[in-house]
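Feature request, filed as a ticket because there's no other form

It would be nice if the structure record came with a short human-readable summary line next to the tokens. Right now we just get the raw output. Example of a typical job, pasted below so the devs can see what we mean:
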Amino acid sequence: MRRSLKIVLLPLLPILALVALLFTSWLHTYHRLTDEKLVAELTFEPIGERHYRVSLATGDLCQIETYLLRGDQWRLDAGFIKWKNWATLFGLDAMYRLDRLEGRYRDAAEQSAHPVSAHALAQGTSMDLVAVAEALGRFNFLLDASYGSSVYREMDPGLLYKVYRTQSGLIVRAEARVVPGGMETLVIDIDRDCGEKESRWLGIARWLDERI
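Raw output as currently delivered:
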């Protein structure tokens, strides 16, 4: 009996390992959701009429990306996922992922008349667990809920915008960007070394996902 079971399971091991790697790669695009935490900082430089260059620092805030946005306001979108209660016993906390940065207009008519300036922030993966869970319907045993959250504010070059994620979604706070002497600066608080290497397991998962 044991020998027969081994014969049946052995061919499945590579498939199970592949699924585990894809799941890990997909999960790596999200971040664990615990207490309120700073997840992004934004500053703006006008380069034309209602046209801005935005500096966006995310994650550990070590790396800053620049984007071009048009409009009066900016909006940052994030996706959140919540696991079934049994999964939390194994350390699967609720998680979030920044998905999109885009410009918007105060007036809805102007929003419809102008092209949208939007930039994707999330990494693409071969596996989308949310889609899989929705396809499984009542047979979904892992994912409890998935939802989106957005914040938007004016594109003001004189302010530094700090975006925090909470248990229920995103919030944003603003503070003056001008420092004594009339110079402008972007202040970044770093809570770990920049360029810290990811785990070997996640590195393998990312390498595999890029080739599928």
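Something like this underneath would help us a lot:
The chain has one domain: 22-189+198-210.
The CA atoms of residues 150 and 180 lie 33 Å apart.
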